[in-house]
Amino acid sequence: MTLRFSPLDASHRALGAKMVPFGGWEMPLSYPAGTVAEHLACRNEAVMFDVSHLGTVRLSGSDALARIQAAFTNDLNKVEPGRAQYTHLLDESDASVIDDIIVWWVADEVFDIMPNASNTEGVVEALGPHAVDVTSGRAVIALQGPKARSVLAGVFPEAAQVGRFRVEVLDWNGVRCTVAGTGYTGEDGVEIAIASAQASSFWDALVSAGFEPAGLGARDTLRLEAALPLHGHELGPGITPLQAGLGWVVAWDKPEGFRGRDALMAEKDRGVARRLRALTVEGRRPPRAGQPVLVNGEAVGEVTSGNFSPVLGHGIALAFVPPSVEVGDVVAIDQRGEAVPATVVKPPFVTSA
After folding, report:
1. Partners of 175 in the β-ladder
2. CATH architecture of 4-55+135-225
3. 220: left (phi over 0), alpha (psi -120 to 50) or beta
4. Residue 133: what pLDDT?
5. Residue-wise DSSP of 101-152
6. Average pLDDT over the chain, rounded to whole?
7. Residue 245 CB-half CA count within 13 A
8. Residue 153 predicted with pLDDT over 70
9. Predicted pLDDT at 347
10. How far apart are CA 350 and CA 225, in angstroms?
11. Residue 353, pLDDT score
C-alpha cells in the first residue's frame, strides 16, 4: 500500500520527528523531547498534534441530515448547527463498530464527518453518492492542554473562544478554517481544519506561540489515561457499542433508525457477553494488548490497550472481561507468564483538572 503524507510532513521532519506508518499515512510518532515529555506537556501546558490522517467526508444538501441519521447511531436532532457529536457506524449483521466518528455540523445543510484514517472509504459508501472525501485538501491540527486556549489566543483569538463540542467557520489571516471544540486527550482544546496550502504557515505560527509538537505515541498514552477507545483495540470487528460501554451514543428510538439497529437490539435483549473495564497494576511494567486477563487463574478476557501512565506512575489497561467482573474486583493480567494483580477501577484513569 502506498503511504499518504500529511501537508505538514516537511514541518515534522524539520523538527526532527520520528516518522512511522499509521493507518495508511506516514505520521510523527514522537519528537526529540520524547513521548513522556510530550504527554506531560499536554497534561500541564499546551501541545499540538497533526491529525490530518483522520478523514474528512463532506456531506451537504437538503437530504444530508436524513442520510447521517439513517447511517449512524446517535441522534443529531439532540444538537443543532454549530455543534459536534460523537457517533458510531455499525455493521448491519452483528452491530460491530465499523468506525467511531465525530460529526461537525458546520452549517444548516453542511456536515464534515470525521472518520478514522483507514475507514474513510467505508463511511463514504455508507452515506451515499453525495458524500465527498475532502481529506486531501486540508490539514487538521489538534491543540490540547490546560493552557491551549490561552496560547492559541495569541495566534487566533477567535478560535480560542470556540466552546466544547461547538463548531465555527473562522478566518485566520484571510484563510478559512473550521474550528471544533473537540479532542482525544481528556484535556480541553480545539481542532482546526485549514487548507493544505496554508497549513505549514499556521503550524509555524503555533510553534512560535509556544505549542509543543506531540506525536502519535503521546496521543495514545493520553487517550488511554482518559479511557477513550481506539478503533482496532476497544472498537472494531466483533465489538459493539454495548460491549464497549458506549450505549450512550445509541439513539434507539429515532424514527430513521440506524444501520445495525436490529442486531444491536438483539444483543441488548439477551445481554452482553463481555464488557470493557479499566484495570490498574502496581509498578512501572506496563500491560500490553493481547495479554490474558485471569480470574482464579483462568483466562476470562484480554487486554485491548495497555501502557505505563506518566501521570499515575504505574501501568494501566483497558480489557474485555465478563460482565460479572465489576469495579473494585481484583483480577490478574498474564504478563509473559507472570500473573500480575490488577484492580478494576472506574474510568477515566486521569481526570483533567
Report:
1. 172
2. 2-Layer Sandwich (3.30)
3. alpha
4. 97
5. EEEEEEETTEEEEE--GGGHHHHHHHH-TT-EE-GGGEEEEEEESTTHHHHH
6. 97
7. 18
8. yes
9. 98
10. 5
11. 63
**Alpha-carbon distances, residue 263 vs 114, 243, 310 (angstroms):** 25, 13, 39
Sheet holding 84-90, edge to edge: 84-90, 97-107, 110-114, 57-60, 132-133
Segments making up each domain of the chain, as ranges: 4-55+135-225, 57-127
Exposure string for 100-126, b = 16+ CB within 10 A, e = fewer: bbbbbbbeeebbbbbbbbbbbebbbeb
pLDDT beyond 70 at 144: yes
**Nearest in space to 250 (alpha carbons), one of 267, 228, 237:** 267
In the predicted model, is pLDDT for residue 138 greater than 80? yes
pLDDT classification of 61: cutoffs 50, 70, 90: very high
**Cβ(210)–Cβ(22) under 8 Å?**
no
pTM for the model stands at 0.97
CB count, 10 Å around CB of 296? 7
pLDDT of residue 352: 83
Tens of pLDDT, residues 29-40:
999 999 999 999
Please answer whether residues 122 and 99 qualify as being in contact, where contact means their C-beta atoms are separated by less than 8 angstroms.
Answer: yes
Strands 97-107 and 275-281: unpaired
Residue 1, pLDDT above cutoff 80: no
Residue type, 232: G
265 CA to centre of own chain: 25
CATH of 57-127, one of 3.40.30.10, 3.30.70.1400, 3.60.110.10, 3.40.50.300: 3.30.70.1400
Supply 40's cell numbers.
Answer: 506531560
